[in-house]
Design brief:
Blueprint (H helix, E strand, L loop, with lengths): L2 H11 L1 H6 L3 H5 L9 E6 L2 E10 L1 H6 L1 H18 L3 E11 L2 H18 L2 E9 L4 E10 L13 E6 L4 E2 L5 E3 L6 H7 L1 H9 L4 E4 L4 H13 L2 E5 L11 H5 L2 E2 L2 E6 L4 H9 L4 E9 L3 E6 L2 E7 L12
Parallel strand pairs: 3-4, 8-11, 10-14
Antiparallel strand pairs: 1-2, 2-5, 3-5, 6-12, 6-13, 7-8, 9-12, 10-13, 14-15
Helix pairs in contact: 5-6
């Protein structure tokens, strides 16, 4: 087995990638889901973007402040991925005691302040095992939908590479290493893509990492792609395998028409973020990895659906 084939095997079997397959349950209960992380609802001349996240209870228990921050970051990223501006966030918290609740809420308020979104309400229950969820509302004038990605689009990856890993985890956060003004302005790059039409679709890089998040985008759009893994921007000294399975606080995949790819990249580069083309979408329904002239199949969506959340 080659190094690239081994990399594909590691990604395919990563727990965070396999966990995303359980999203098929949403279809089984009859819910209408197009495959994006948020829902866009027409409202006057704009769209409301509605998102929600549940944080793993073990994380909430082990590091309540970080869990509170993560509840904000994940929601804001979902709004941004659809070309929206976050307006308000609501948290729903169950805590074993007051001290734990205060730590979680401190994390929520801290991250919300850095990212420029108001905490507008919430719910708290004390005396029970820890659990945390949050929802965010945003607005967009021209939402980015994953289903609009199409064969022939340039695949681009954009990241904030300034940051550090939370010890022993896949989480890479920029919140403590980038000033608040920059953190708020970073997300405006996605709004520019949406409003200018320089991109067809975007997806935030979340728990399943770059390839797993790309699989979700491809399934939604009914496309395939080749991901040139060596061209994905990553921090100096971080091994490729680790980075491809990283959950960053700012990371997005963008599908842009080739003639506008440079314009799309400029929205990120102008803000001091990393952005580079790293592949091309096609009509095969297969995600392939490529590196150093070699190519290997990661997933064939025609044979094995990933989440079954495909757009109309």
């Amino acid at each position: 087995m080659s190094d690239l084939q081994e990399l594909a095997r590691v990604i395919r079997n990563a727990p965070a990638v396999q966990a995303k397959r359980e999203l098929a349950l949403v279809r089984r209960i009859g819910a209408h889901v197009d495959g994006d992380d948020g829902a866009a609802i027409a409202h006057g001349e704009e769209f409301l973007i509605l998102c929600g996240e549940a944080i793993a209870p073990a994380f909430v228990s082990a590091d309540p402040h970080a869990a509170g921050a993560a509840a904000v970051v994940t929601n804001v990223s979902d709004v941004r991925a659809m070309g929206g501006r976050p307006v308000g966030i609501v948290d729903m918290l169950v805590s074993p005691d007051r001290a734990h609740a205060e730590a979680v809420l401190d994390g929520v308020v801290w991250a919300a302040g850095l990212l420029g979104v108001d905490v507008v309400g919430g719910h708290l229950t004390l005396g029970q095992a820890p659990a945390l969820s949050a929802s965010c509302t945003g607005v967009a004038s021209r939402p980015l939908f994953g289903r609009n990605a199409r064969p022939g689009d340039e695949l681009m990856a954009a990241f904030c590479l300034t940051g550090q890993y939370r010890e022993g985890t896949t989480f890479f956060s920029s919140l403590r290493d980038r000033d608040a003004h920059a953190l708020r302005e970073d997300g405006e790059a996605l709004v520019e893509l949406a409003e200018s039409g320089s991109a067809h679709a975007a997806r935030d890089v979340s728990m399943p990492g770059v390839a797993g998040s790309l699989l979700q985008l491809l399934e939604t759009a009914g496309c395939g792609a080749t991901l040139e893994v060596e061209r994905v921007p990553r921090p100096p000294g971080v091994p490729l395998e680790r980075w491809l399975l990283t959950f960053p606080s700012f990371g997005f995949l963008v599908a842009a028409p080739p003639e506008r790819a440079a314009e799309a990249a400029e929205s990120f580069l102008r803000r001091g973020l990393a952005c580079a083309p790293c592949g091309r979408l096609d009509d095969t329904g297969v995600l392939r990895l490529s590196a150093s002239g070699e190519s290997t199949e990661l997933w064939d969506l025609r044979r094995v659906p990933f989440t079954q959340l495909r757009g109309p």
